[in-house]
Structure formats: structure tokens, C-alpha cells
Design a protein that fits this description.
Elements lengths: L2 H5 L4 H20 L1 H15 L11 H36 L2 H6 L5 H38 L6 H26 L5 H16 L25 H4 L6 H25 L3
Helix pairs in contact: 2-6, 3-4, 3-6, 4-6, 4-7, 4-8, 6-7, 6-10, 7-8, 7-10
Length: about 260
């Protein structure tokens, strides 16, 4: 049996192909100007909190810096998740790469999954770097006001919640990409779906919006409870996140399988 034949069988072969697509997607994403733009924009917004060093609000100031910093990371990250995912997918279509890949042994669900994993890796790197910048800002200000806010572990948990939210935006955008005709439409639709998911709690009180209750609720990943010192059930949130990630990925893979490229 040749090496190519061995690569076609077993569970390891699909995982290797998914990993290969993910690495290619991450490498391409890191070269995108959008990535640099939103990373620098997020860092600048986080560093704007340093202007507060002219004041001494004590604990309230540290809370504001954390809210402002994490909010900035989430905002710029949402734009990166939607626009970056759409750009990566349609660059493969316009360049003819996706057609070449599908004529080989790569299955369409493997391509969709690998592309998503690559985007998720990019978002994880983005969140980690900016949360590290935010942690340095908070530590600097803590020394100046001789106060304390919360341990680093809690800030990392807040960053993890932001990443979970951004990855849901990415998978919703990827689902749109599989049937959309243009990158602009897919990116805008992804942002619109993210907005609907962020406003999902309104469906609890509005009877006319009861159908929205089946849509993911990005509000459950808000970091405000953590910043207020409350505990968050991460296992239940992970199960909630995983359920929607699998659902949207499955839909995206099915639509991609039905479409001609």
C-alpha cells in the first residue's frame, strides 16, 4: 500500500486534511491587511485607557478600563471575524483555489471545518495579544493608584468568553459564505446575524420575536458578570457554544456540498 493510499483511510487522514486547510487559512489570514488593521485598531483603543492616568478614580477606574478594553477587543474582533472570514473564503473562489482543492481528495466538509479552525486560531491569537496589552495597562494603573481589581486568571476567563463570542460570529459568517454570491454580502450578512444574536435577549420579552429564541444568544458570553466578581458556569457555556458551532458548521458543509464552484 502506497503512502497516498494510506492517507485515504482511517480517522487520521481527514484530520490531517482539516489541519492542512486550517494552517493555510491561518497563514493567509496573518498576511491580510485586515488583520493588521483591526489588531492595531484594537490595541489603540485599549491603550486609550492610559489617558485615564491623569485621574484617580480608584477601583471604579480599573473597572472602567477593563470594560472599555474588553469592549474594544470585542468590537474590533467582531469586524475581523466577519470581514476576515468572508475575505478568506471568497479569495479561494476568485483565485480558483477552491475548485482545485475539490478536484483532489479533499472533502467539502473538511475544507469548511479547516477554514473555520484557521479563523478561530486567528481570533484566539488576536484576543490573546490584546488581552495581554490590556493586562499590562491594568497592572500599570494598579501600581499608580495603589489599588487592585481582580486576578489575571479572571481577565483571561473574560478573554476566553470574548473568543467564544467571536468564533460564533465567524461560523455564522462562514455559513453565509457557502451560498452568498459576493464577499461584501457575506460580510454584511455576518455582521447583521451577529447583531441579531447580540439582541437575542429581547426575544424573551417580545412575543412577536419568539422565533428568535432558536437563534444563538451572544449575550450569554458577556464579560460583565466576571468583571463584577460573579462566577460564570464555563462548562455550560462551552456546551452551548459547541452545540451552535456544530450546527452552523454542519449547515455550511451541507450547502457547500450542494454548490458548484
Amino acid at each position: 500500500m502506497t503512502k497516498n493510499e494510506r492517507d485515504q483511510i482511517g480517522l487520521g487522514a481527514p484530520l490531517r486534511r482539516v489541519g492542512w486547510v486550517a494552517r493555510q487559512a491561518l497563514a493567509e489570514a496573518l498576511r491580510m491587511r485586515l488583520t493588521v488593521l483591526f489588531a492595531l485598531g484594537g490595541a489603540m483603543l485599549v491603550l486609550m485607557a492610559l489617558r485615564l492616568r491623569e485621574f484617580n478614580f480608584g477601583h471604579a477606574e480599573l473597572k472602567f478600563i477593563s470594560d472599555f478594553g474588553l469592549g474594544s477587543i470585542g468590537l474590533m474582533g467582531t469586524l475581523l471575524a466577519a470581514l476576515g472570514t468572508a475575505h478568506l473564503f471568497f479569495s479561494d473562489i476568485h483565485g480558483g483555489v477552491i475548485g482545485c482543492l475539490f478536484t483532489r481528495t479533499l472533502r467539502r466538509w473538511e475544507y469548511v471545518t479547516g477554514k473555520l479552525v484557521g479563523v478561530m486560531a486567528l481570533l484566539a491569537l488576536y484576543v490573546f495579544v490584546l488581552v495581554a496589552v490590556l493586562a499590562l495597562v491594568i497592572a500599570w494603573r494598579e501600581r499608580e493608584v495603589a489599588g487592585s481589581f481582580f486576578p489575571l486568571a479572571r481577565l483571561l476567563q473574560a478573554g476566553a468568553l470574548v473568543w467564544l463570542k467571536l468564533s460564533l460570529v465567524a461560523v455564522m459568517t462562514l455559513t453565509v459564505c457557502t451560498y452568498a454570491g459576493s464577499m461584501l454580502f457575506a460580510a454584511l450578512a455576518g455582521l447583521m446575524l451577529a447583531l441579531v444574536a447580540q439582541l437575542r435577549p429581547l426575544a424573551q420579552a417580545a412575543h412577536g420575536l419568539v422565533w428568535l429564541r432558536v437563534w444563538p444568544n451572544l449575550g450569554v458570553f458577556d464579560v460583565e458578570p466576571l468583571l463584577n466578581g460573579l462566577s460564570v458556569s464555563l462548562p455550560s457555556l462551552l456546551l452551548y457554544w459547541l452545540g451552535y458551532m456544530v450546527l452552523f458548521t454542519g449547515v455550511a458543509a451541507y450547502v457547500c456540498h450542494q454548490r458548484d464552484y
